[in-house]
Amino acid sequence: MSASTAVLKAELRLFGREPFSLFWIVAFPTVLLTILGLIPSFREPDAGLGGSRVIDLYVPVNVLLAMIMAGVQALPPVLSGYRERGILRRMSTTPVRPASLLTAQIVLHFAAALGSALLVIGVGRLAFDVALPGQIPGYLLALILGALSALALGATVTAVTPTTKATTVVGSIVFFPMMFLAGVWVPVQAMPEALRGIVEYFPFGAASQALNQAAEGAWPDWTHLGVTIAWAAVLIAAAVRWFRWE
């Protein structure tokens, strides 16, 4: 336990020295929300959205974006870099197992994404009068499952790429479709019905719907939660199956 705690503290210091990663995980979703909130039409009720405003839909989307940034963009190059430099292999010969380092990185990236999510919710409430989530337990469950899917996807990207450069390229290729599925370009709720029906069977489309339902005060649909859980399980299994320590 003390060895794992020491690894976590050391990784926390290193994580704090990465301002660009911290910006993209913690600050960027809030910056994007602020830009969108400054568009006057996004602050007006829309009959096509059931009376909701576009900015109301974008708070859950940007919460999910923080998870995607942490899991798909920030985490994979770190893990791949440790593996490429032989750090994981050398750690396997010490009392501190490589799993301790991987766990520390996952915990730190999840904590940063969670802090970003709280910041998005706070700014949405204070700056744009977006209501706080009406179903808090359901919101937290959807958020955790979305984060688990994002981190598992990032670990899978790391597992199937041989070098840090390849990991960065593949992570970027995966990142943009995941943003679309999460509703960053167009909120899932505003997509045409046929497209929405497809998007909801992908992890971040389902998570986006679950977060929005919880934000409106309803318990998330178990279909959306189930899709997110299923994807997380598949991605975790793939990462475990193909991950190489060196």
TrEMBL record:
Pfam families for this protein: ABC2_membrane_3 (PF12698)
Classification of source organism: Bacteria, Bacillati, Actinomycetota, Actinomycetes, Streptosporangiales
Entries under PANTHER family matching the protein: DOXORUBICIN RESISTANCE ABC TRANSPORTER PERMEASE PROTEIN DRRC-RELATED, TRANSPORT PERMEASE PROTEIN
The keyword Thylakoid belongs to this UniProt entry's keyword annotation: no
GO terms of molecular function: ABC-type transporter activity
Family, as annotated: Belongs to the ABC-2 integral membrane protein family.
Entry-linked InterPro entries: ABC-2_transporter (IPR052902), ABC2_TM (IPR013525), ABC2_TM_bact-type (IPR047817), ABC_2_transport (IPR000412)
Membrane topology: Multi-pass membrane protein
Keyword flag Membrane: yes
Cellular component annotations (GO), alphabetically ordered: ATP-binding cassette (ABC) transporter complex
Subcellular location: Cell membrane; Membrane
Domain of life: Bacteria
Transmembrane segments: 20-39, 59-79, 100-124, 136-157, 169-188, 222-243
Sorted UniProt keywords: Antibiotic resistance, Cell membrane, Membrane, Transmembrane, Transmembrane helix, Transport
Domain ABC transmembrane type-2: 20-246
Protein name: Transport permease protein
Main subcellular location of this protein, as a coarse class: membrane
PROSITE patterns in the record: ABC_TM2
GO terms for biological process, alphabetical: response to antibiotic
